[in-house]
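agent> Task received from the user: take the single chain below, predict its 3D structure, and emit structure tokens. No templates, no multimer pairing.
agent> Plan: (1) validate residues, (2) run structure prediction, (3) serialize to tokens, (4) report one or two observations.
agent> Step 1 OK, no nonstandard residues flagged.
tool_call: predict_structure(input=
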Amino acid sequence: PDCNRGSSYSFDGDPDCNRGSSYSSDGDPDCNRGSSYSSDGDPDCNRGSSYSFDGDPDCNRGSSYSSDGDPDCNRGSSYSSDGDPDCNRGSSSSSFTKVASTPGH
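)
tool_result: status=success, residues=105
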């Protein structure tokens, strides 16, 4: 019953403004912009491509935040399962369990 802009809003059940292409059955009552928000369950604004099943209730920007469990803002690429509840910038700035092999800096 609200203003929807896009092409795939069938059965999304979203009472808010949604802009994107894959919002079918996402159940997100907020404004989502992106392409892969199906069944992410995130009630907040998410921008990126891999937020499916991340369970993060906050704003996340990046590409590898799946199952990181971090409720805070993370920026980078290797924050998966780091368990850091703070703002992280970079790739190896704290004692991660697994650190992606980075080229010589």
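agent> Step 4: summary for the user.
The mean pLDDT is 44.
agent> Done.
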